[in-house]
Amino acid sequence: FTYRSRFFVLPPKPLALPESPPTDIAAVTSELVTGAAGVIAEKWEKFAGWVIAAFAAIAGLSVSNYDKVLQMTSARTVRIVLSLFFIAVVLHALQKACATFVQAGVAGGKAGKEMNLQLKANEVQPFLDAIASLYPQPAAWLLEKLCAKMMRTGVKFVTGVVIRAAVYSMYAAALQLLLGLIALASIGLALHDPTP
């Protein structure tokens, strides 16, 4: 603005704006990455559920109609399909564990943000100890280890654990799909060669 008086004109002066507090890059990065991990885990969890359901239907059909299946394919193919289904079930359990861990981290972060949780430095360790004490063993022991490392290295460590769990969840779901495709290919190829 320009200040005018009867005798002179002052040059324009910029308005003084209040200084904003410095951005906590680690906290912002953690929030963004954790949110992305939640989306990854959620999308792949649904996909893995469909894959394992279709795989279970194929395996169940092979067992319940074993005599009829043997007329169209070989016992070796049935064994292959059932073995692949067992491996897919193990992968599905691991995938669900990883996805649940990610979703729990996202939900906890969201709840803390909604409560506007701001702990002082001397309140962080008692807060983490109180949370860990609510869990049964061995989950409490694992949580204590994660919290102790976070206290040493910062929030970046926990964010890394969450995003790795999301990526492992995605890998496990993709492997389930691959095993399902191998099972379907095995059945399709064996239909042309039904030797026991």
List keywords for this structure.
6 helices, elongated, 196 residues
Tell me the layout of helices and strands:
Elements: H1 25-64, H2 66-72, H3 75-114, H4 121-133, H5 139-153, H6 155-190
Helix pairs in contact: 1-3, 1-6, 3-6, 4-5, 5-6
What does this structure look like?
There is one protein chain. The protein is mainly α and 196 residues long. It has helices at residues 25-64, 66-72, 75-114, 121-133, 139-153, 155-190. The protein is built from six helices and no strands. The longest helix has 40 residues, at 25-64. The N and C termini lie far apart (93 Å).
What can be said about this structure in brief?
By secondary structure, the chain is an all-alpha fold. It has helices at residues 25-64, 66-72, 75-114, 121-133, 139-153, 155-190.
Cα(first) to Cα(last) distance is 93 Å
Mean pLDDT, as a whole number?
75
Instruction: Encode the helix/strand succession as letters.
Output: HHHHHH
The helix content is over 70%
What's the β-strand tally?
A: 0
Give the C-alpha Rg: 28 Å
